[in-house]
Amino acid sequence: MQKRLDLTLYLVLDPVLCGGLTGMIETTRMAVANGVTAVQLRSEHPLERSEWYNAALALKEVLADTTVPLLINDQVDVALAVQADGVHVGQSDLPVKIVRQLIGSERIVGLSVSNTAQMQAVPWSQVDYVGIGPIFPTTSKGDAAPVLGVEHLQSLVQVKQGPAVAIGGINSSNIVQVLQTGIEGVAVISAICGQANIQQATLQLLQQIKQARMQF
Amino acid sequence: MQKRLDLTLYLVLDPVLCGGLTGMIETTRMAVANGVTAVQLRSEHPLERSEWYNAALALKEVLADTTVPLLINDQVDVALAVQADGVHVGQSDLPVKIVRQLIGSERIVGLSVSNTAQMQAVPWSQVDYVGIGPIFPTTSKGDAAPVLGVEHLQSLVQVKQGPAVAIGGINSSNIVQVLQTGIEGVAVISAICGQANIQQATLQLLQQIKQARMQF
């Protein structure tokens, strides 16, 4: 099915936090059925390349009949190997220009941004969206940059020249503050992965997004 | 310069064991000037993708005016990004068929083999050579398979259907035994990297290879 880049509620999957391959598959199926709009495979712990490949293949299959794109974090070769819909890279990954050359013009490229200087340097002609974070403290990413807070997020949103998604410690208790900045979407891991009721967690976040969009 | 796949004396570079980027560059320059025939960039420790990229770019430059190919371990996207001469993958990396598709037909693909079953499963139409090991105990690779020993190497050499290089703990004290199996070449890390005199270490290994080839 034709994929659509919609950053509204962006699920980042981590094998450890989401219960391994089986957990990632089940979480994705349930979360997407209830409205998650984008899915990224990421791993903070080193994985064998074959594990990345098998997980990406399985997730691609789960999303096959949906408009929800699958993005692969960092591993451009895995993205190419499974013909994923895009890649998300950080500031310490391959240069974005090279990533765009490798992945081609049709696929999605996302870039992490953690401060004003990085935002000003974003090559928007090569990038489809940026991920801004971490907004709040998070345990999901060991090497995360300093926490930005909502005020700094607000200032970054004001200078950005393309779509963005906020990431880092976002959950139902703080999602409204994040959306008040006018950002296009939020990315979550733990607010969906590992929750006792994936459906309920997803629906609650979407309800909050809907209400926040009506207010601001 | 046109590259040539010659497995005779194959240097595997590890950033930690070879003194970081500067050490890898200096070691490569000296080792290749004295007869090393192939170079692979590998890292047992997780590296940022940008570090892989920068190291690969620098090594490609060092080898630009030589016939010695640069191979990248595992990271097919890094190999593509710097247009390296090939990749070397293990049994837990991307499937060889996929690696060949990504890297194209012109570049070198090497595959690690650690036992008879893996040797029998080698897709020789996709692979330019195999790396057999570890032959002896080694501290260079934390997740290495069980030590093969020279007898098992001998049996693998007898059934292989293409060129091979032996790897794992090979140095001037045991290189002759390895070559007596009739294998095309040997791969070394510590026998060159970190040696006080890179030139002397390289020349000694090559002299031993030459003598062994005359005898057997």
Can you put this structure into words, describing what you see?
Chain A is an alpha/beta fold. Chain A has a single domain, classed as Aldolase class I (TIM Barrel, Alpha-Beta Barrel), CATH 3.20.20. Chain A has an 8-stranded parallel barrel, surrounded by 6 helices. In chain A, helix 1 packs parallel to helix 2 and helix 2 packs across helix 3. The longest helix of chain A is centred in the last third of the chain and has 18 residues. The first copy, chain A, is globular. At the A-B interface, helix 2 and helix 3 of A face helix 2 and helix 3 of B.
Task: Report the portion of residues of chain A in β strands.
Answer: 15-25%
Number of domains of chain A: 1
User: Main interface pair?
Assistant: A-B, 20 and 20 residues
H/E topology pattern of chain A: EHEHEHEHEHEHEHEH
What is the count of DSSP helices of chain A, taking H or I runs of 4+ residues?
8
**Which homologous superfamily in CATH is the superfamily of chain A?**
Aldolase class I
* CATH fold assignment of chain A: TIM Barrel
| Silhouette of chain A | globular
Mean pLDDT over all positions of chain A: 96
| Strand element count of chain A | 8
In angstroms, what is the radius of gyration of chain A? 16 Å
Q: Could you say which structural class the secondary elements and strand pairing of chain A correspond to? A: alpha/beta
Mind summarizing the main beta sheet of chain A? 8 strands, parallel, barrel
Give the N-terminus to C-terminus distance of chain A in angstroms: 32 Å
What's the CATH architecture name of chain A? Alpha-Beta Barrel
What topology, given as strand order, has the largest sheet of chain A?
A: 1-2-3-4-5-6-7-8
**CATH class group of chain A:** Alpha Beta
List unreliable stretches of 5+ residues of chain A: none
